Amino acid sequence: MDRTSGGVIGVQKCRFEILDWGLSSCYWIEIQYAGLGRHTVAAGGPVDEEDLVTYFKILLAVQVLYFSTAVAIKTSLILLYYRIFGVIRWFRWMQAAALTIVLLYFIVCHLVAVLECQPVAFDWDKSIRGGTCIDQNQFYRWNGVANLLIDFMVWSLTLPVIWHLNLNLQQKLSLSVIFALGLLACAASIVRVVAFNQVNFDDITYTLVTASIWTTIE
Prior knowledge:
Blueprint: H1 2-33, H2 49-85, H3 89-115, E1 117-118, E2 132-133, H4 136-156, H5 159-162, H6 169-179, H7 183-195, H8 204-207, H9 209-217
Helix pairs in contact: 1-2, 2-3, 3-4, 4-7, 7-9
């Protein structure tokens, strides 16, 4: 089982690197060709309707890649914990529950990201008659909250195991501090959620920059 989980972790690592490069490439394209970091015409800037069409198309790819990257990281951590602590039966049940939640998050977020506008093209072409979209800003914000809670859940998985190990207090505290480094991702998620409060869809190429930066950091 160790070899199996180790192989899966290796595949997950490779997949994460591909997704990460894909996400970074999308941001680069947005900056170079779609006006990311500049104001829209509505806000007195140079980003026109043609730029916005390109921007929203790439933004859809960014969302799909972000959710895939986030889930790949969370899944890799859960599998890593399995290699370390998987001999404990009750911990395996906790891991199974956590993995189920992560996969459900992945499915729901992907479906909403792709289908948030009907038809899909209405996301970048508001001239389509009868087209509708959900409140995208609320989706970004509450998705960020869900992501934060899942990050905290994944981080906290190890705590009950560490404190049940046959170690002295200093060793338990040391291990807890090491695993607590995962809280840095939680901190980045909090800042990202707050940053979404600054987003204005009339000037999205400029106001989404801070949230995009913290998405990358996270």
